Amino acid sequence: MPEHDRPHVLMMSEITVDGKLTLKRGASSKILMKYMAPETELLLHQTRAEYDAIMVGANTIRIDNSFLTVRLVEGKSPLRVIPSNRADIPPNANILGPDARTVIAVSKAAPTENVVRLRESGVDVVVAGEDEVDLPGLMAILSRDYGVGRMMIEGGPTLNWSMLNHRLVDEIRLIHLPFIVGGADTPSLVGGMHIESEDEMFRLSLKRHFMCGSNLVTEWDVIYHPVPHE
């Protein structure tokens, strides 16, 4: 898909030195986010204010129940975008509230009662994909119908992997936390990745690094190799 048919996408996350997002499987990322320096917390909210949309996966909503709004700086909260294959967002999810506009992307296989409940809560529901959300198709819908030119993702390992695998991430910004948590099944920045050779690795180019308070921040461009013609 040509770049102009989709938003420019920044993946932003806090990670430990060993690349983990949480203390253990099923734990909220908010536990580690408490240890971000005040300056990096401001950076996160400034970034949200600069982008048209913010996307996280449905599992992140179930675990963290985030608001995904701009709170610590002046600025408009971005459009909240949540891919949910079966439209099974919890009824008490904060993203269903009036703090910002929300789009829930679902598949055609989503149960009708789930879709009706979400629409009745006041959010937009868009259908993209048969059995699971078609992320490239969703990007085109966000660009065409919602005017999203720049989107950030604060995703978990599944969404991060899917977006990279579809070649939909342009930049990555990481807030490095000075901890090691370990754990073979502890969620890391990208999951779902079982590559066969080094040719399949996602390649990055470091473009900037700086201290933000007591946290190191690194910024990377994602370098995609041309898709070989079959």
TrEMBL record:
Q: Which Pfam family, any one, appears in the UniProt record?
A: RibD_C
**Pathway(s) of this molecule:** Cofactor biosynthesis; riboflavin biosynthesis
Query: Could you give a GO molecular-function term held by this entry?
Result: 5-amino-6-(5-phosphoribosylamino)uracil reductase activity
Mind listing the UniProt keywords for this protein, alphabetically?
NADP, Oxidoreductase
Gene3D superfamilies (alphabetical): Dihydrofolate Reductase, subunit A
> Boundaries of each Bacterial bifunctional deaminase-reductase C-terminal domain copy?
7-217
Q: Name one GO biological process term.
A: riboflavin biosynthetic process
Which InterPro entries has this protein been placed in? DHFR-like_dom_sf, RibDG_C, Riboflavin_Biosynth_HTPR
Q: What is this protein called?
A: 5-amino-6-(5-phosphoribosylamino)uracil reductase
Organism, by scientific name, is Methanoculleus formosensis
